Amino acid sequence: xxxLIDNYDSFTHIIKHYLNSNKVDVEVYRxxxxxxxxxxxxxxxxxxxxxxxxxxxxxxxxxxxIKRASKKIPILGICLGHQSIAQAYGGKIIRAKNIMHGxxxxxxxxxxxxxxxxxxxxxxxxxxxxIVEKESLPKNIVISSESSExxxxxxxxxxxxxxxxxxxPESYDTELGQRIVxxxxxxxxx
Length: 190
Hints:
Radius of gyration: 15 Å
Distance between the termini: 14 Å
């Protein structure tokens, strides 16, 4: 069973559909519906933290859940979830120079984890005005992909099971978004 934390995003149902299409059961909870310990006690195989409005500080239990669970339970954070992972592990979230709402970027990645067996330079859709500041990253945060402009598009936490995507794999215009979600499930089921 997987748990999807909904940060009041209008497309959480698409993420749930992507997970369900991999033949896994998913329980969805709003970010203020449970405590972090309640999620952990459910013993999920994996946790997904959805996109949503505002900042990681406004994402309910997201940061606490990441801090408490990511060494034991794999976590995938998408957009706000990605920013929450970065902040939970010491990164700084800043305003982007350009607002990216519905913009498509080419993604260049490290061919590992979420990007295993994926081609370089695939297109992904971005919906954000905040980014993870590259200069603020501690050594435990590994950049696993960037946009062609050099913005961080995904991270992994070394010595934890946390993976963040700034772009939206669930967006219609993101190439191979379903494969990224499938790769996360493979990580969870090892």
